[in-house]
Amino acid sequence: MNNEEAFRRYLQDNNIPANKYFQAYNKVAAGLKPRYFRFPHKNLTYSFGLTHKRVLWLRDVELFAICGKKPLPRNAVGLDAASAAAVEALRLSVLAKQAHISILDMCCAPGGKLLAIASTLIKYITTGDAKVTIVGLDSSYRRLKVCNALLRKEGLPSEVLVKLICTDSTNFDPSETFKNIIDNKDCTVPCSYDRVIVDVECSHEGSLRSVLRTVKYWGARQFEYRWLNQNYIDDLVETQCMLLNKALDLCKPGGMVVYSTCSLIDRENQGVIKRILNQRSDVYAHPLPIRQCECCTVATNATKNEFEHFDWPAEGVDIKSEYRYGDFRLDSEGPCKNDSSGSFCAVLFNALSETSTTDGQFIASLLKQPKTE
């Protein structure tokens, strides 16, 4: 890697162990960590007879792993397992019985999480009258066009309506009329949402493949600008807080916001969560579905002692002593009847762990206080 010494200083300044980082980086560069993929909704039959292993610790998103540098199967769509976990955190199965479902993806391009959300909801909808509206926002028109191309391949049914809008999410006003990139026509959007996911722009060093791509395709100058510039990180944190605040404003009372980054820097992760919870009295931490049990694991033939191996391979960020938990929670109609979701409202998929098989990802789950009768 170019400028390795400068990058080491950056890592050390942000309390990231440099030696472990470069070990993990070299492992990814050599193709020694698995890649993950899913199939579009219209191509789900391709999953039958696959020799690739399904990711058993994911309940909702049907994801498969492939090792080495082999090409992905035909029609497959790449999505890292840690990114899929951010979709799992939305607890989409709990929404399944609603007649009208609204979801907002505030930083949606190039579309991996948005498409996984749509495909997962289709699986859970049990009534033919259900209507789903998914709104995807992004400031990059080019990346939204990529999202639109993937959306066409997904083959979603008519009851799932997706709108893609090019806008600055920090200033998003749902009362306005927008141009839908999908059909280039004017459209309106819901004013509030059952679920909001905000996978914010971040320093990205947790996504080792992103670092590899930046070095390979953009060169040392872009690498230096993005990762070796503390002023850039300072600006990012401010934007991240603005986006999370906006997400909570747009969330319905009783709804959920999932905040995620692929950063390993505390101030972009739990630092942002702490700041927002200190500012707002209408938001509470909510446990993530990181535990598996007999009623909810996809590994139906597993023995009792094996279930622990299907828990999320993530480190819990224990914030019980620092942050407040609400006395309300999502009901336990699904997927877990035993409410075994665990106690962490924030987790880190640590890409630097020797046993890590995913990219780095921080995920936090927040509930907006329901209206009182």
TrEMBL record:
Catalytic residue list: C262 (nucleophile)
InterPro entries according to UniProt: MeTrfase_RsmB-F_NOP2_cat (IPR049560), MeTrfase_RsmB-F_NOP2_dom (IPR001678), RCMT (IPR023267), SAM-dependent_MTases_sf (IPR029063)
Record-stated family: Belongs to the class I-like SAM-binding methyltransferase superfamily. RsmB/NOP family.
PROSITE patterns the UniProt entry points to: SAM_MT_RSMB_NOP
Keyword terms of this UniProt record: Methyltransferase, RNA-binding, S-adenosyl-L-methionine, Transferase
Organism: Babesia microti (strain RI)
Residues at which S-adenosyl-L-methionine binds: C107, C108, A109, P110, G111, G112, K113, D138, D168, D199
GO biological process, one term: RNA methylation
PANTHER family per UniProt: NOP2 YEAST -RELATED NOL1/NOP2/FMU SUN DOMAIN-CONTAINING, SAM-DEPENDENT MTASE RSMB_NOP-TYPE DOMAIN-CONTAINING PROTEIN
Assigned EC number: 2.1.1.178
Gene Ontology MF: a single term: RNA methyltransferase activity
Domain SAM-dependent MTase RsmB/NOP-type, residue spans: 1-369
Protein name per UniProt: Ribosomal RNA small subunit methyltransferase F
Classification via Pfam families: Methyltr_RsmB-F
Domain of life: Eukaryota
